């Protein structure tokens, strides 16, 4: 997954990464999320759902 390295280190505060579940095998999406979430958490990123971002929560 070449694209994974491009989104592991987003630049700047307030970056929003949107993922969608396209057609085809879902395992690629699952694998990507399993890799991204622990990395972001380990590096101090705060993960929020979009509604929480919009309300400042």
Structure at a glance:
By secondary structure, the chain is mostly helical. 51% of the residues lie in helices and 0% in strands.
Key phrases:
about 55 residues, mainly alpha, 3 helices, about 50% helix, about 0% strand
Describe it:
This protein is mainly alpha-helical and 57 residues long. It has helices spanning 2-8, 27-42, 50-55. The termini are far apart. The model has no long low-confidence stretch (mean pLDDT 76).
- Could you give the distance between the termini? 32 Å
Order of helices and strands: HHH
Q: What is the averaged pLDDT score? A: 76
Which segments are poorly predicted (pLDDT under 50) over 5 or more consecutive residues? none
Helix content: 40-55%
Main sheet attributes: strand count, strand direction, barrel closure: none
Topology:
Elements: H1 2-8, H2 27-42, H3 50-55
